[in-house]
Design brief:
The protein is 34% helix and 18% strand. The protein is globular. The relative contact order is 0.10. It has 24 helices and 24 strands. It folds into three domains: 4-227, Rossmann fold (3-Layer(aba) Sandwich); 237-390, TPP-binding domain (Rossmann fold), CATH 3.40.50.1220; 401-588, Rossmann fold. Helix 16 (413-423) crosses helix 17. A hairpin with a 2-residue loop joins strand 3 (40-43) and strand 4 (46-50).
């Protein structure tokens, strides 16, 4: 009989997580993380790192006695991070995993009830973006003896229901731990999901609070260190031949670089493929910075928030080659961007994504697939792309982002981006999630390779500040610049206090346009509505709020300052790099639109149609005119799924 060790279920979980390893991507140490003796080790000539790099925790009655005690006992080998909000703790963990290109992840534990359901939004974010996250959510008593316990959700007709069932549609793997021995199967299944490049996403362990404290004789072999590797499946030979044949006869192909390109570490492979075969590359939000903006084959942002050069190249393409993209509506212009006669190829690790929009599928790892395709098409070279269009667009970007002559006037978001760009170097990473800035940054930010981090699969307000903290932990050597609007900042800002406590430095550029400027433009310009309930001035209030964001950020310990104009903004961006705490720079901006917000229809010089439903019936002529235009645009949509 094998040897056993008697542990509580919570102790067993933490002990097991502490010995799950992955090959080290680099030797850089994370900022603000107290490295422990077992956080990294060497096996032979291979350096390893712990795959789950600690657990974010807010304790309550559903996890403090079980998981809390287990984390305390393991604090020297498995770090615990205290956050301010369960959702934002999870956002930080997600940003860390994204910054690590999914090679490492973090865990989050919560109490039952609202502690758990606070994380549901973050779980959806991780699910949509295909990012690994381990959620250990406290649950009710498995033995039901004290039911109903505080915060327990009761279903009058189903005794097995708990609030944690909310996680089921937004998790890649879900398990309810009602016996301590369930961990023997649940934990390996959770990490198999998180480390699977095709099925990667959040794993949720709904951990009954009495079971956390229950002891069991676990096999010692269960706690032997394990190394998790990311597989690189090669494409099917028949699919490879079919795609190669399509490329060989294409005259004007274009490549759409998605986030899967970056997660596969295929950036250099993509650059070599595009250069060798003369195929221009256009970018999604997740794929931006796979190629540096300076790369001659990088034609910039695609789609609704796309550049004139990228959208023109894609419209004219006879073959569209998606690489690691899930072909979201912003990418496809709500299925209007690709030419009627163009063929679509999709290279993707998951067959579900590879088959979208009637694409010819090439299922496999992006790096392996591009290498195999390059060999298969040999000396193929596409017709020369329109380099002049690319240069014209870059000149337009310079104009949008130029320093304003009048420093007293409220700058546009584009002018703010230009100021930040001028004040940073190639180490900078621009990051954001919601509002106007995602579209503006996708168009106007000119990153080095890896210099862009956007959560736009779920476009979740409140991700920005916590995400910047998690990203800095993942990329300690790079300068993290968090762009956030006043609306998103008001939604979730409390992890600034955590970053101050942990001495995690990053810079927040808080653009204050006194409301939800992005949705106001969508409402009034995109959908034909009237200004209502978005800007403070258009709300049914007696007095508009006068919020002192500088005082607010400073109250949490951040260095906070208000910039009066873009010149001062540049100076403050440079000064922020000298600090070991977060810096918040507030700058008032105009809420008016500027070229590149993505709200304009394809009649403009940039951007593309975005399908946002418009009312069929209205008393206002403006609304009726907008609906007529909407019908014209939707008639162009492809119906192939």
């Amino acid at each position: 009989m094998s040897n056993t060790i008697r542990l509580t279920a919570a102790q067993a979980m933490i002990k097991w997580l502490s010995v799950q390893m992955t090959p080290a991507a680099s030797s850089s140490e994370a900022v603000g993380v107290q490295k422990t003796a077992s956080s990294s080790e060497a096996v032979g000539n291979q350096k390893l790192e712990r795959y789950i790099d600690g657990m974010w925790a807010i304790f309550g009655h559903g996890n403090v006695a079980g998981i809390g005690e287990a984390l305390h006992a393991a604090r020297d080998v498995f770090p615990t991070w205290r956050g301010q909000n369960e959702q934002t703790m999870a956002h930080a963990a997600i940003a860390y995993a994204k910054g690590k290109k999914r090679t490492r992840a973090m865990a989050v534990t919560t109490s039952i009830g609202p502690g758990s359901t606070n994380v549901v939004t973050a779980a959806a974010l991780a699910h949509v973006n295909r990012l690994p996250l381990l959620i250990v959510a406290g649950d009710v008593f498995a033995n039901r003896r004290p039911d109903p316990v505080l915060q327990q959700v009761e279903d009058f007709d189903d005794g097995t229901v708990s609030a944690n069932d909310c996680f089921k549609p937004v998790s890649r793997y879900f398990d309810r731990i009602t016996r301590p021995e369930h961990l023997l199967t649940a934990l390996p299944r959770a990490l198999r999901t998180m480390t699977d490049p095709a099925n990667c996403g959040p794993a949720v362990l709904s951990f009954c609070q009495d079971v956390q404290a229950e002891a069991y004789d676990y096999p010692e072999a269960f706690f032997e260190p394990r190394v998790w590797h990311t597989r690189r499946p090669a494409p099917d030979a028949r699919e490879l031949d079919e795609v190669a044949s399509l490329i060989k006869v294409a005259r004007n192909p274009v490549i759409i670089a998605g986030g899967g390109t970056i997660y596969a570490g295929a950036e250099q492979t993509l650059a070599a493929f595009a250069t060798q075969h003369g195929i221009p590359v256009v970018e999604t939000q997740a794929g931006k910075s796979a190629l540096a903006q300076s790369h001659p084959m990088n034609f910039g942002a695609l789609g609704v928030d796309g550049s004139a050069a990228a959208n023109a190249a894609t419209e004219a393409a006879d073959l569209v080659i998606g690489v690691g993209t899930r072909l979201q509506d912003f990418t496809t212009g709500s299925r209007t961007l690709f030419g009627e006669d163009a063929k679509l190829v999709s290279i993707n690790i998951h067959g579900y994504d590879a088959a979208k929009h009637g694409a010819v599928s090439l299922v496999g790892d992006a790096k392996v697939a591009l290498e195999a395709l390059s060999a298969a098409i040999g000396n193929y070279k596409a017709e020369a792309p329109n380099a002049q269009a690319r240069e014209d667009w870059l000149r337009a970007v310079d104009a949008y982002c130029a320093r304003p002559d009048d420093q007293a006037a409220l700058p546009t978001d584009g002018q703010v981006i230009g100021a930040v760009q001028r004040a940073t170097d190639e180490t900078a990473i621009a990051m954001c999630a919601a509002g106007t800035m995602p579209g503006a940054l996708k168009l106007l930010w000119q990153p080095s390779q890896g210099g862009y981090h956007m959560e736009y699969g779920y476009s979740c307000m409140g991700y920005e500040v916590a995400g910047a903290m998690g990203l800095k932990l993942a990329e300690p050597a790079r300068d993290v610049i968090c762009f956030v609007g006043d609306g998103s900042y008001m939604l979730a800002n409390s992890e600034l206090a955590t970053a101050v406590m942990r001495r995690i430095p990053f810079t927040v550029v808080l653009t204050d346009n006194r409301g939800y400027g992005c949705i106001n433009r969508l409402q009034t310009m995109g959908c034909g509505g009237e200004p209502f309930n978005n800007m403070y001035v258009d709300c049914n209030v007696e007095d508009q709020p006068q919020i002192d964001y500088v005082a607010h950020a400073a109250s949490m310990g951040a260095h906070a300052v208000k910039a009066k104009g873009t010149d001062q903004l540049e100076a403050e961006i440079k000064a922020a790099r000298t600090r070991n705490i977060p810096t918040v720079i507030v700058i008032e901006t105009t809420a008016k639109t500027f070229p590149g917000t993505g709200i304009e229809t394809r009649a403009g010089e940039h951007g593309y149609f975005w399908d946002v439903a418009v009312p069929q019936v209205s008393e206002r002529q403006k609304q009726r005119d907008r609906y007529a235009d909407y019908i014209t645009q939707t008639a162009r949509q492809s119906l192939i799924n």
